[in-house]
Design a protein that fits this description.
The complex is a heterodimer of chains A (262) and B (163). Chain A contains eleven helices and 14 strands. With 262 residues, chain A is α+β, with helices and mostly antiparallel strands. In chain A, strands 4-5-10-6-7 form a five-stranded antiparallel sheet. Chain A has a four-stranded antiparallel sheet with strand order 11-12-13-14, with helices on both faces. Chain A has a three-stranded parallel sheet with strand order 1-3-2, with helices on one face. The N and C termini of chain A lie far apart (43 Å). The model of chain A has no long low-confidence stretch (mean pLDDT 96). In chain B, 31% of the residues lie in helices and 15% in strands. In chain B, α2 packs antiparallel against α5 and α3 packs across α5. In chain B, a hairpin with a 2-residue loop joins β3 and β4. The radius of gyration of chain B is 15 Å and the shape is globular. Chain B folds into two domains: 75 residues, Beta-grasp domain (Ubiquitin-like (UB roll), Roll); 69 residues, [2Fe-2S]-binding domain (DNA polymerase, domain 1). The longest helix of chain B has 15 residues. Chain B has five helices and five strands. Chain B is of the alpha+beta class. The N and C termini of chain B lie far apart (40 Å). Chain B has a five-stranded mixed sheet with strand order 2-1-5-3-4, with helices on both faces. The chains are: A alpha+beta (262), B alpha+beta (163). Chains A and B meet through α2, α3 and α6 of A and β4 and α3 of B. The structure holds flavin-adenine dinucleotide and FE2/S2 (inorganic) cluster (2 copies). Flavin-adenine dinucleotide (FAD) binds next to β2 and α7 of chain A.
Chain lengths: 262, 163
């Protein structure tokens, strides 16, 4: 790892002004960024540690919306009584990320800013129709995840929290890669009034909505509605971990399990 | 160089370090606490697990400067003088190690599991919660036995599983 200057600002405003320098990077839980820097795939000249900023933490219900601060650690979300009550599928998803040590440091904001194509949280954000709040604006999840490791964030823009509308039902099922524990395929389903959402992670170059499945589940929200509905394998990843056909098959299986869990 | 100060196993320590210094490097090279091991250096194996403010973390995936003001406990901080911590004693008793390389991380994770799940975690919980600790020798069976026995000896009240 190359050396860098280290900053620990106490306010979002200060962090944003430090982040305006294009050679600086934000540091949240460090569970992706530090390994990347060790491999010299990233070599920022400065790190801006967000852990000293009060405004980025906290989990609370506001009306029918669950607000989760960007610096909330995976373990905090998994164990939060507020999350467990409002959206148990979200707590379960957070509790299934990586391992206990990763969950103690890794954060919601870091995970979605990174947008790893096999990460769990992007599926929850897209599958729940969440809104990502930054220091500059609010971005609907549908517009936030733009591609592999790509998001709508501008340079230096800081995610402050994520707003999750509380669904009537929601479920997440993940087939974890046994070595990395990332999702080989993960499917998040939710139903809120008449809207059904199905978000798939791990299978393709980035998280996406399975619209045929959404349509089928809109008629009847039951695993059986998904019989015969599939996602085209042509668009899916094909690598040493799994073929595209196998991933397509897993999407169907995980979607049914997610509906059953909802 | 920046100055970093923290409490390690109850002692206040401080040193001038480069910001890129990992917590595990700081512990091993500055403080000469070499009980915390580096197995992979890629966040996978858990040999480097220590507690920071009571939470188990991988010390190879945290910077020393992130621990400014923190309370850190390493494997060296568990025993009470010559008396082994109940979890250490259980690993010895149940043959929960062979080469011993993974053991400091295993024991720090095991203590954390008991702290979070209460005194008598069941086998499934123990196996699931040891996800982040890899052992090349034992096949895990005796580690799981040791964690169960150590947990029972730790005198932590039973609790509803947190996850
Ligand atoms: C062994 C291991 C297993 C893992 N398994 C899984 C898994 O099963 N599922 C899964 O989803 N993830 C997994 N992860 C990744 C983990 O969830 C990371 O914590 C997460 O991807 C990144 O979050 P972080 O807080 O550590 O961010 P960091 O590593 O600190 O930062 C990641 C990126 O996000 C940017 N960033 C951070 N916070 C913000 C913010 N508030 N606003 C804007 N940009 C920001 C940083 O600049 C950086 O580019 C695993 C990691 C490890 C090491
Ligand atoms: S050395 Fe830290 S996880 Fe392997
Ligand atoms: S005892 Fe040798 S690696 Fe676990």
């Amino acid at each position: 790892m190359y050396d860098f200057a280290f900053h620990r600002p106490a306010s979002i405003r200060k962090a944003a002004s430090l982040a305006a320098d294009e050679d600086a990077k934000l540091l949240a839980g460090g569970q992706t960024l530090l390994p990347t820097m060790k491999q010299r795939l990233a070599a920022p000249e400065a790190l801006i540690d967000l852990s000293g900023i009060e405004g980025l933490t906290g989990i609370a219900m506001k009306g029918r919306t669950l607000h989760v601060g960007a610096m909330s650690r995976h373990a905090e979300v998994a164990e939060s009584p507020v999350v467990r009550e409002a959206i148990p599928a979200l707590a379960a998803l957070a509790g299934g990320i990586g391992d206990p040590h990763v969950r103690n440091l890794g954060t919601l904001g870091g995970s979605i800013a990174n947008n790893d194509p096999a990460a769990d949280y992007p599926a929850a954000c897209l599958g729940l129709g969440a809104t990502i709040a930054t220091n500059k604006r609010r971005i609907p999840a549908d517009d936030f995840f733009t591609g592999m490791f790509e998001t709508a964030l501008q340079d230096g823009e800081i995610i402050t929290k994520v707003l999750f509308p509380v669904p009537r039902r929601a479920g997440y099922a993940k087939f974890a890669n046994p070595a990395s524990r990332y999702a080989l395929v993960g499917v998040f389903v939710s139903k809120r009034s008449r809207q059904v959402r199905v978000a798939v992670t791990g299978a393709g170059p980035g998280v996406f909505r399975a619209t045929d499945m959404e349509e089928a589940l809109s008629k009847r929200f039951a695993a059986r509605s998904l019989d015969g509905v599939s996602v085209p394998a042509g668009d899916l990843n094909d690598d040493i971990h799994a073929s595209a056909d196998y991933r397509a098959h897993l999407v169907g299986v995980m979607a049914k399990r997610a509906v059953d869990a909802a | 160089m920046t100055t970093v100060a923290m409490t390690v196993n109850g002692d206040s320590v401080s040193a001038d370090v480069e910001p890129r210094t990992l917590l595990v490097q700081f512990l091993r090279e500055n403080l000469l606490l070499t009980g915390t091991h580096v197995g992979c250096d890629t966040s996978q194996c858990g040999a480097c697990v220590v507690h920071v403010n009571g939470k188990a973390v991988k010390a190879c995936t945290m910077l020393a400067v992130q621990c400014e003001g923190a309370e850190v406990t390493t494997i060296e901080g568990l025993a009470d003088g010559d008396a082994l911590h109940p979890m250490q004693a259980a690993f010895q008793e149940h043959h929960g190690l062979q080469c011993g390389f993974c053991t400091p991380g295993m024991i720090m994770s095991a203590v954390d599991i008991v702290n979070r799940h209460g005194g008598a975690p069941d086998e499934a919980t123990i196996r699931k919660q040891l996800d982040g600790n890899i052992c090349r020798c034992t096949g895990y069976h005796n580690i799981v036995k040791a964690v169960a026995a150590g947990g029972a000896a730790m005198d932590v009240p039973a609790r509803e599983a947190a996850e």
